[in-house]
Amino acid sequence: MKKPLISLKTFSITLSLGLVMSASTKAIAGFKPTSLNQENRALSETLVAGYKGLQFKRWRSQEIRRLSRGMARCVGKAQVDLIPLLPQLPTPNEIPVELTVEANPTFLIYVSESNFPVKEAQFTLLNGKGDKVIYEKAISLQDKVPGFVRISLPETTQIDSEQDLLEVEQTYNWYFTISYDPSDRSLDPTIQGVVKRVAKEESLVQELAKTPEINHPKVYADYGIWTETVSSLAQLRERYPDNPQLEADWIDLLESVGLDNLGFNALDKF
């Protein structure tokens, strides 16, 4: 059996994040048209007036996991904040199991500035029991820090090209670790997430088909699918960086799940 490259020992973590003011109205009020293409401009003009923002309030799953690693700050010789874009719960070190409808979802992690060079990270996906590596990948962080790091999984396993990487109704654990000192991995800051793939309902497929792409994140949110809510919105923001609705959606979505201190502060750090 292939051994994970990360240590699964529990360690104490702390997080210190400064609060920043954020409001979707500020994003819209401060918007100045630049080089929007015709489609983007039309979407903006149509949707800014009276737009209520994007909220994530409906959870299809009530599953909760107690984590060995949540938000992490390495407090040894190096300091860095690693924040997974996951809804926050009031109970420390617990998160809900996020849902995805894809065999190859995309995960987002915010990596702050560090007093040591941040060059590479390791992403590891394990099965639900945590005793089998499903997928692992070294990720270059060159020119990405501070900012959001996106990890997009392949559609199939590395062993069997016919087998989906994530199978329906199966739960997986993932870990994201920054490597500072290869000789002492105990100081490496690490965060953990838990994801479960669920079947894509026919009603969801139909709703997505008839809804403009810019509103797909809201459709996923209405169905309680967190992973595609945030990842589809991130993709849209990259494609349309000057769209005020998407800026407002980004801020409102993160505020609705307790991550408002990331919304406005890191708006353009993709």
From TrEMBL:
Keyword annotations from UniProtKB, A to Z: Signal
Source superkingdom: Bacteria
Keyword Signal: yes
Signal peptide: 1-29
Protein name, UniProt field: Conserved domain protein
